[in-house]
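Quick one, probably user error.
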């Protein structure tokens, strides 16, 4: 099955207000009328509102990098799914490796976040990925399979149209060391197999699986040619118009 490519930029904790809006406007102008691939950006929370406004009328979607697993109340410093919808976000990252490994987010917490996001109609990009010692120990498939299955616990088949999976090997994020197309393809094929076991073949074939980890304009095409790779989640190279465009416009 042919899946529409999905390229997304995770700005992490970078840029300021002015740079965020300028980057959004630059992408908006360059990508006007683009409809053969989906594009999204994930700015910091505090710039979501302005980036949504800058991208009004553009096919580029805006998402948040995180959300709270609770609906509202005494959760100082947290941001709810409803708040994201309120400012015009359409999607949200869950389980980015920096959340899992720097802030201790468990599979169970990620699952609650997935459920919260879906309950308000947000699309979800659920991130999974193994650490270097897990890869070296031959545990890649077990780790990413567990993260995917646990993250999707209780998610109905009817919601899977709102799900994207991002395979992001932790050792490849921000290191300049991308997975080889063979490594990415093998992991993606494994993840699609997990989706098939959980939801059947039709849904497994329709869910997009992005690769993330040191994606650049000069390696995107070979990565996109790997089996089951349907797009990319991009950190560092998404912070400048030209480099992100070089990825979005891969051939
Ligand atoms: C990411 O932020 O998800 C990521 C993959 O970062 P980078 O592209 O910088 O490795």
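Nope, works fine. Designed sequence:
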């Amino acid at each position: 099955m042919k899946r529409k490519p999905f390229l997304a930029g995770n700005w992490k904790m970078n840029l300021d207000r002015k740079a965020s809006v300028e980057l959004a406007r630059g992408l908006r102008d360059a990508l006007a009328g683009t409809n053969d691939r989906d594009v999204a950006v994930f700015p910091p929370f505090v710039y979501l509102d302005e980036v949504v406004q800058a991208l009004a009328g553009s096919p580029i979607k805006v998402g948040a990098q995180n959300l709270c697993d609770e609906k509202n109340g005494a959760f100082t410093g947290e941001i709810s799914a409803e708040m994201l919808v309120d400012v015009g976000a359409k999607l949200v990252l869950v389980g980015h490796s920096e959340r899992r490994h720097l802030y201790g987010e468990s599979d169970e917490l990620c699952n609650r976040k997935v459920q919260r996001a879906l309950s308000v109609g947000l699309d979800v990009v659920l991130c999974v990925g193994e650490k270097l010692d897990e890869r070296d120990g031959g545990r890649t498939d077990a780790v990413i399979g567990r993260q995917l299955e646990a993250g999707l616990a209780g998610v109905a088949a009817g919601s899977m149209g709102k799900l994207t999976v991002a395979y992001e090997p932790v050792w490849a994020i921000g290191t300049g060391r991308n997975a080889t197309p063979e490594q990415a393809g093998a992991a993606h094929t494994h993840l699609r197999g997990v989706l098939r076991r959980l939801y059947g073949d039709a849904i497994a074939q329709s869910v997009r699986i992005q690769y993330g980890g040191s994606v650049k304009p000069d390696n995107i095409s070979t990565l996109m040619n790997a089996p089951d790779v349907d797009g990319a989640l991009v950190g560092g190279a998404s912070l400048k118009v030209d480099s992100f465009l070089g990825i979005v416009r891969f051939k």
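The first strand starts at residue 6 and ends at 10.
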